Amino acid sequence: MAHHQAGKGARVPGLTRLLLALVLVLVVCANPSQGTQDNDTRAHGDEEHQQGNSTAHRKAFPVLSFNYEYVRKPFEISLWILLALLMKLGFHIIPRVSHVVPESCLLIFVGLLVGGVIKAIRQTAPVLDTDLFFLYLLPPIILDAGYFLPIRPFTENLGTILVFAVVGTLWNTFFVGGAMYGVCQLEGGQLRGVDLLSCLLFGSIVSAVDPVAVLAVFEEIHINELLYILVFGESLLNDAVTVVLYHLFEEFSHAGTVTVADALLGGLCFFVVSCGGILVGAIYGLLGAFTSRFTSHTRVIEPLFVFLYSYMAYLSAEVFHLSGIMSLIACGVVMRPYVEANISHKSYTTVKYFLKMWSSVSETLIFIFLGVSTVAGPHAWNWTFVIVTVVLCLVSRVLGVVGLTFVINKFRIVKLTKKDQFIVAYGGLRGAIAFSLGFLLTSNKMKDLFLTAIITLIFFTVFVQGMTIRPLVELLEVKKKRECDGSINEEIHTQFLDHLLVGIEDICGHYGHHHWKDKLSRFNKAYVKKWLIAGDRSTEPQLLSFYNKMEMKQAMMMVESGGGIGVFKPPLMVPNIEPTAPSRSKTVISKIREMEIRKMLHSNMQKNRQRLRSYSRHDLMMDPFEEDVSEVRFRKQRVEMERRMSHYLTVPAKRPEPPPSVRRVAFEPAHRVYTYDDGEGTPVEARRNASNAVSLLHESGREFQEEEEEKEEEQFKALRRLSDPGPKS
Amino acid sequence: MGSWQARPEQQQQQQQQQEQERWHYEELAHKSGFSTEQIKNLHKRFRQLSGNKETISRANLDSIPALANNPLKKQIIDAFFDKRNQWQDDEVGSLEEIGLEHFLMVMSHFRPPAHKSGEEERQAARRQKLRFLFNMHDTDGDGIITLAEYRKVVEELLSKSGAIGHQTAKAIADAAMLEVASINAPHMAPDDFYEGITFEHFQQILKGLEMESRMHIRFLDVDTTTMRCGKAPS
Fold it and tell me: Is residue A397 classed exposed, middle or buried when 0-12, 13-18 and 19+ CB atoms within 10 A define those classes?
């Protein structure tokens, strides 16, 4: 903590000084009396400027003055962030490097360089403040990860993840701590002073897999979902264990002795920390969901609610020393389905982009600061200690994974193969959390020793393991991420299977996994959704929302696969041939969605082909929903498709046309876009249905088209007036 | 005195019965792939459902209260009585009542994959499970899922989820069908008409779901004490 104070006191990096020098050259004049408080940053030229016949005491009016102190803090912060982002930009411009070396390594390297430069100018570098890290840099990354966590694989593998997180981390801690102690005693010399509790404390710091590092590396290798969720889920859930163990051992090392009661209390603490964290997160999540129910008139501030509730969840958990990470994850997971059903499309996009942006910046800053701190910090290098640490961590990780998998496989249906085990073991990277926890240690001789070892371990895992994991994945032919996800057929059958399995379980009279899942989802639908989702959307079935999202995507794809052929009126609002009862008000939702589609397309004008991958930050830039598509082209294509469909799928009597070039729609379910907007109950006829675009001309023939077009035009005009007012509302 | 002497006979009879039962179970185990322990459990459940009779009728399955909430109730019950699910490839149609053997054959589609199964076995299991699903969709038994049949599937799926429009279900089914067509028959000539989903196409589109590891019930835990049949079918 002492370091922390020192860091804050003299926060003038050499770079800022250099820039200042540049600024000074441009400064023309300054009035000495204008806010000169800090001498070592102030360097200004004086200029006497006599104004007319003023008295000798009257100061001249300052035309141009210099006041750096006023903006110093934000200026420096902005400068650092700008530097980090420029570096990031630079990597992606140089293609060859970014293929071989993962970004995290490059950023650490840059940090080292910057740290070296600062040291050369003999300034005090800003260090990775523990407060800064835990309160500002870590939450965005965790929120981003938690909000977009793929729920299905996570819950399916929850048992495995928990075993790895809890038992695995405990094993690592005690193995590394104990073995370290043994080695220290054997080695003697300066290591003899390291007692068992300190070793265990050290073990608890280095044993936790770090989510930031894992995310940074795994995002780039696009590994299959199962492995990703295993390693990543473990890195998130082991926070509770780490927090408890760390505090436990720190307390003990002050107290000196450990009693059985203490150990039991420690065990209890673990449950309190993890369950308490989740509870806090869930409460905030429900609050956030409930709040979002009423935001239909103030769309602009919707994203803020998501961010603030989540951040508050994190901070509230930290107040009580509960696991902030688990709280944040729980908040995001609980909030997400309800919030997404309530907020507008634009807000959803905002939330997505801001989360990705902040987490990207945070990650960059963390790695750069890690590099800088390495150069800056006091080091106590001890060959034995460091090398033994690295070796022990590797060995314990491998043993832990292999041993646990052996046990877990007895309970799993889909067994983990040797390849899977290898990747899980190899992917256990350490990162900045370990560093910050090390920083938090009270200053003594041990601290420097530990810190050096931690930094070496982090460097080793990030550089060596991070760089080699990609070629190893290629070499071992590990299954990669499935490219085309989310076809409508798969979705239909996933749901079909769910119901089927529940039915079979009921026939067997067996209350199994599916039975409880079904009960939960029915409870959710019957009670929770009514409270948390506004309006009619609470009763919309999942298949329908999925389908509508898919429709949107398909529309996009159709546009890009077609060309701009000309203006064409869209028969989007065709009244259906079969008369239907107007009392089916549920389809009002779809009508509004139709509006959504049109609005979106109307405001965008550019083409793009990339599809979104949920886990990668880089690919976010090419979000198909931010594609600008020509509305005109879209409509034309849509009509084409409808026409083809009608002939393609109905009775052979009609003359069929070649199938459209529509390919399977594929998108990441994790990034589904909810297309709800402005559900102010605009009185529309019940039959309008977004999905009708597909079945529109289905039973009719082409002869209806002309009539429909005219109707379309009118309806379209009417709808425009009802469109989303935009940010100024 | 008579009863004392009758006992060894009774015992013999009982033994014989047990022998027969065991033999019966073993035969069933061989056919269906379950262990004799599992078959015993399932037999108990069977007797519960059938009211200690030899066969189960549709009414017996209908009266299970937990199934009332299931949107696929009718299809599931039909699947039990469907001859195609009895592993005899050429028979179509449905049975009126099913015995233990038929019950077990249907249940065998939901076995978890064996612990050490090779690639071929997994493919075979996947094929078998997909065939079961296909049979559920293909209600008229002609080997092809037509658009009308697929629409029915989607409608049933959405039936319990509130008053969803008929049109919506149709639209979804249409889109799904289009997707199948565009994957499996992308180069259809202008005059062709896409008849419906054949089993090969069906397998193709559901390739990614890895049925063999998803479509199973953990039979190891089937325990009669937790079974509640509700009203006993009289």
Answer: buried
Contact residues, chain A, for B170 at CB < 8 Å: 695, 698
| Residue A341 to residue A218: CA distance in whole angstroms | 30
Q: Do residue B167 and residue A493 have CB atoms under 8 angstroms apart?
A: no
Chain B, 12 to 41: residues with Cβ < 8 Å from chain A are: none
CB A668 within 8 A of CB A547: no
B194 vs A60 pLDDT, higher one = A60
At A715 the pLDDT is 46
Average of pLDDT values for A527-536?
76
Side-chain-facing half-sphere of A269: CA atoms under 13 Å: 20
How far, rounded to the nearest angstrom, does the alpha carbon of residue A475 sit from its chain's CA centroid? 29
d(CA A718, CA B184): 41
Distance (Å, whole) CA A354 – CA A369: 22
pLDDT number for residue A446: 78
pLDDT digits (tens, 9 = 90+) for A584-625: 333 444 555 656 665 555 544 333 333 333 344 444 444 444
Higher-confidence position of A670 and A535: A535
CB contact under 8 A, B76 and A493: no
Reference B211, options B104, B147, B105, B124; nearest CA is: B124
Label each residue of A488-549 as H, E or C. Answer: HHHHHHHHHHHHHHHHHHHHHCCCCHHHHHHHHHHHHHHHHHHHHCCHHHHHCCHHHHHHHH
The answer to whether A549 and A674 have CB atoms below 8 angstroms apart is yes
Burial of residue A437 (number of CB atoms within 10 Å: 0-12, 13-18, 19+): buried
What's the burial of B168, exposed, middle or buried (CB within 10 Å: 0-12/13-18/19+)? Answer: buried
Residue B134: closest CA among chain A residues belongs to which residue? A493
Q: Which residues in chain A (499-518) have CB-CB distances under 8 A to chain B?
A: 499-515
Phi/psi for A486 (5° steps) reads: 80, 45
Residues 574-613 on A with a CB inside 8 Å of B are 576, 578, 580, 584, 586-587, 590
Q: What is the amino acid identity at position A172?
A: N
Instruction: Grade residue A61 by pLDDT with cuts at 50, 70 and 90.
Output: confident
Rounded Cα gap, residues A468 and A392, in angstroms:
20
Which of B24-62 are b and which e, b meaning 16 or more Cβ less than 10 Å from the residue's Cβ?
Answer: ebeebbeebebeeebbbbbbebbbbbbeeeeebbbebbe
A238 neighbors A168 (Cβ within 8 angstroms):
yes
- AA identity, residue A11: R
Q: Please check the confidence at residue B165 and state whether its pLDDT lies above 80.
A: no
Is A663 exposed, middle or buried (CB count within 10 Å of its CB: 0-12, 13-18, 19+)?
Answer: middle
DSSP letter at A670? G
The interface pTM score, or ipTM, of the predicted complex is 0.85
A133 touches chain B (CB under 8 A): no
d(CA A213, CA A229): 14
pLDDT for residue A244 is more than 90: no
Residue B207 — pLDDT band, cuts 50, 70, 90? confident
| Cα end-to-end span (Å), chain A | 47
Q: Which residue has the tokens 């004049």?
A: A29
Instruction: Determine the 3-state secondary structure of B68 from DSSP.
Output: helix
Residue from A492, A511, A654 whose CB has the most chain B CBs within 10 Å, to mutate = A492
Q: What percent of chain B has pLDDT over 90?
A: 0
pLDDT tens digits along B125-157: 888 888 888 888 888 878 888 888 888 888 888
DSSP A440-455: HS--SHHHHHHHHHHH
Q: What whole-number distance in Å separates Cα of residue B155 and Cα of residue B173?
A: 9
Contacts of B203 in chain A (CB under 8 A): none
Angle at the Cα of A709 from the Cα atoms of A708 and A713, rounded to 5 degrees: 115
